[in-house]
Amino acid sequence: MKQVLTIAGSDSGGGAGIQADLKTMTAFGVYGASVITAVTAQNTLGVQGFETVSIDLVAKQLDSVLSDLKFSALKTGMLATSEIIEVVVDKIKEYQVDNLVVDPVMVASSGDILLAEEAITTIKEELIPIAKVITPNLNEAKVLTGRGIEEEVSLEILASELHKLGCEYVLVKGGHQSGEIARDLLYDGVDFIEFSAERIDTKDTHGTGCTLSSAIASNLALEYEIKEAIQRSKKYITEAIKAGCKVGQGNNPVNHFADRKNSIGDFSSSSLKLNST
Ligand SMILES: Nc1ncnc2c1ncn2[C@@H]1O[C@H](COP(=O)(O)OP(=O)(O)O)[C@@H](O)[C@H]1O
Ligand SMILES: Cc1ncc(COP(=O)(O)OP(=O)(O)O)c(N)n1
Question: Which ranges carry the Pyridoxamine kinase/Phosphomethylpyrimidine kinase domain (predicted)?
Answer without folding.
Answer: 11-255
